[in-house]
Amino acid sequence: xxxxxxxxxxxxxxxxxxxxxxxxxxxxxxxxxxxxxxxxxxxxxxxxxxxxxxxxxxxxxxxxxxxxxxxxxxxxxxxxxxxxxxxxxxxxxxxxxxxxxxxxxxxxxxxxxxxxxxxxxxxxxxxxxxxxxxxxxxxxxxxxxxxxxxxxxxxxxxxxxxxxxxxxxxxxxxxxxxxxxxxxxxxxxxxxxxxxxxxxxxxxxxxxxxxxxxxxxxxxxxxxxxxxxxxxxxxxxxxxxxxxxxxxxxxxxxxxxxxxxxxxxxxxxxxxxxxxxxxxxxxxxxxxxxxxxxxxxxxxxxxxxxxxxxxxxxxxxxxxxxxxxxxxxxxxxxxxxxxxxxxxxxxxxxxxxxxxxxxxxxxxxxxxxxxxxxxxxxxxxxxxxxxxxxxxxxxxxxxxxxxxxxxxxxxxxxxxxxxxxxxxxxxxxxxxxxxxxxxxxxxxxxxxxxxxxxxxxxxxxxxxx
Length: 465
Fold this sequence. Notes:
The chain is mostly helical. It folds into two domains: 230 residues, no CATH class; 206 residues, no CATH class. It is 82% helix and 0% strand. It has 16 helices and no strands. Helix 4 packs across helix 11 and helix 6 packs parallel to helix 9. It is globular and about 60 Å long. It starts with 19 loop residues before the first helix and ends in a 10-residue tail after the last helix.
């Protein structure tokens, strides 16, 4: 569990352009953290893709059931992504302050919170699974499969949340390589288990669910082993003693983690509301539009993974600088990451423009869907530089522990987006206009985050905010 040392505070810097040595140092830090983070982010959605590929051979009803259950599970887990974000920022601050013991203690508290939340979610899902499936509109033939998959897979939710929290611990320790290795290993195990349990054991969709549960629990076990080893190494006692005390649940620490996570929970729920509203509006536009929208959203989400890797690097780097009391270093890192966000956004936008004729045929043979897709993807391409800066600033403010501002800014963004989205069908516009509304949403986020970044109010140094 490597911990990168805090960089020496940069020398006096020009407010507009950073010295070449400082820029190169930040580039090395960003690349070292962002590239492995991107690999881990891309590996996670492959779990559902493997399940879909395996279950899809059994029939349409089974695949439809999996689709509904997977959407519910993804929502149940993703709303708690603050377990990773808040833990990353808190641990990174303590690493920057030179207190590795407190950093690990903070991480352990986050893991205990994940276990408690996971137990609560299991209780809810097991008791309400049929109702949740019906709420999502599963057909009579797909509903039994969705319920089966949802109930079994819910047993892996605590492990999924532990993975989130432990990932945050390692990111805060400036280690994004271990999460990459664990994600790749988990994906490989999931694929093997699915093939064995679904086909070899003849368990059908239940086998697919059990394979995912086993893989997720194995990933959580690996993470816990890494964290425990880090605690024992830091305590200097490998035979027993003080390190046990660091691993015990601490009520005050768990409450502090939960309190720090509430604003990020509000932010995440607001963002999920934006995506749900967009999907609902697209569905009302017609079958062609909703089909094209889902493909566009898939592309948009993939691009978001790439940009989110820089944001994750931002969380770790900014938290570390602020914990070390280096406000100037945090500002310099922020400026350099903004440049990276713009550059990556431009590259991704150009790739989307160039790849538009190829993307449609990958997903559909319907000419009308392809036609609608071409215009929507062009809007997505134009918006990528904006998205790049938004993701970076989001990561910077998360790393600074500025959760309350992120929550309020996302609520404002939701308030701006909602009438714009519902105006699309009311005015007789189509899918392209809906994606312009999505771009307005990103521009609103950009304005709010840029104002905060320029104000400097996010810069609060010390081991805790």
